[in-house]
Amino acid sequence: MKSRFHMLRFAGSLALSLPALITAGRTSADEPVHNANAQYRMAFDALGKRNWSEARRLLLALWAKSHTWDVAAGLGQAEFLLDNRAAGTTYTAFALANVPPRENPKTVERLRAALSEMKETVATVRIVVNKDGADVIAEHELVGTSPLVHEIYLNPGTRLLEARLEDGGHAQQMLDVQAGESYQIALVVAHPLAQPALVSASSPANSRATGELTSASGDHDGASRNWTPVFITGGLAIAAAAIGTGFAIDAHSAKSDGAKALGNAEAEFGSNPCTPAKGGGSELCQSVEELQDRRKSSSTVATASFIAGGVFAGAALGSYFLWAKPSPTRLDAWLVPDGGGVRFAGSF
Questions:
Q1: Helix (H) or strand (E) holding 332
Q2: Which of 131-140, 199-208, 258-267 has the lowest mean pLDDT?
Q3: Which of 5-14, 34-43, 154-163, 282-291 has the highest mean pLDDT?
Q4: What's residue 289's pLDDT?
Q5: Ramachandran angles phi, psi of 132, nearest 5°
Q6: Beta-carbon neighbour count of residue 299 at 10 Å?
Q7: Per-residue pLDDT averaged across 250-259, rounded?
């Protein structure tokens, strides 16, 4: 309710400030442009009157023709105030990221304030996929193609995230998210014919073959090797390495972005710009702090994933040399951002 109150408070002033900016520079004599200008004016007039449904209808038609920052700003308000909060936050983030430098700084500040309010009501999620070119899907809606350079926003609750390749490769994860929280996840896309990497698998013994071999040799030296543990632990090692690589890339990106943000802060506030006496608490310094936190968390996950990958690789090697006969076996394995583990049950 608090966030909705703040949105209602600034929605009217933002809606009234945008029509003049929208029509500026769009005075061509071309008839379709005049029609578009008229539709813009009608849409933002509806926003000014708080007729959110009508504004949304008009703006969606304009968005289908051209993805512009001003249409996104209006859609962000309309969707959010119709309780489509994730959609509203997404449009507003697009608007803020694409405002031309020449626009009125006050409009930019209003958009920034709106986005800050909206993000308190949704979850912010950064997704890393182990393969480029995969469609990234959230709650059955396409949100981009990997590598996904922008964050996505989700309404609180249990949400389905997916990555799909044209060859049928697919990964999915259910994620429980809360309002105002940030998450980082990795989706590992496997070939459609490959055995899933994160599994609990069992391999029943072939009792007839075991009996024949035992009676012929009296021991297990000639027994055929059971490859199931090798395949599974090898797959886990590859999956862990892919996750570690994805988060390592994200950590490097955050480090680079953080250096740029710190440079901007130093340009405005001088050396040690983010001390309380200088720019502490400013938007620039908040951005620097967020990027530094993101780099640390991604580095931690990457390190844990690489360690888990080494454990699984060692387990695969051990399985190859030690699992010398087919026998009742079971392998349980798991991999989480903070580490992983593997448990074997069977005879050597």
A1: strand 329-336
A2: 199-208
A3: 154-163
A4: 80
A5: -75, 155
A6: 17
A7: 79
Residues 292, 258 contacting (CB under 8 angstroms): yes
Phi, psi (rounded to 5 degrees) for 108: -60, -40
Other C-beta atoms closer than 10 Å to the C-beta of 220 total 15
How many CB atoms are located within 10 Å of the residue 322 CB? 11
Q: Which residues of 178-189 are buried (b: 16+ CB within 10 A; e: fewer)?
A: eeeeebbbbbbb
CA proximity to 85, closest of 51, 111, 120: 120
Q: Which residues pair with 144 in a beta bridge?
A: 136
Distance between CA atoms of 198 and 161, rounded to whole angstroms?
A: 17
Listed residue (238, 241, 328, 251) closest to 296, CA to CA: 251
Confidence of residue 154 (pLDDT cuts 50, 70, 90): very high
The answer for 175, left when phi > 0, alpha when psi is -120 to 50, beta otherwise, is beta
Q: What are the tens digits of pLDDT across the range 265-319?
A: 777 777 777 877 777 677 777 777 887 888 888 788 878 877 877 777 777 666 6
Q: How far is C-alpha 197 from the geometric centre of its chain's CA atoms?
A: 21
CA atoms within 13 A on the CB side of 109: 5
pLDDT (tens digit per residue) in 175-220? 999 999 999 988 988 766 554 444 333 334 333 333 333 333 344 4
Q: What is the C-alpha to C-alpha distance for residues 274 and 270, in angstroms, rounded to an integer? A: 9
Structure tokens given for 151: 């964050």
Measured between alpha carbons, how far is residue 18 from residues 9, 58, 64, 110 in Å? Answer: 16, 15, 19, 11
Distance, in Å, from the CA atom of 88 to the CA atom of 82, rounded to the nearest integer, reads 9
How many CA atoms does the CB half-sphere of 169 hold within 13 Å? 19
- Distance in angstroms (rounded) separating the CA atoms of residues 311 and 316: 9
Helix axes 69-81, 52-65, angle to 10 degrees: 150
**Who contacts 72 (Cβ-Cβ below 8 Å, separation ≥6)?**
63, 91, 92, 94, 95, 98
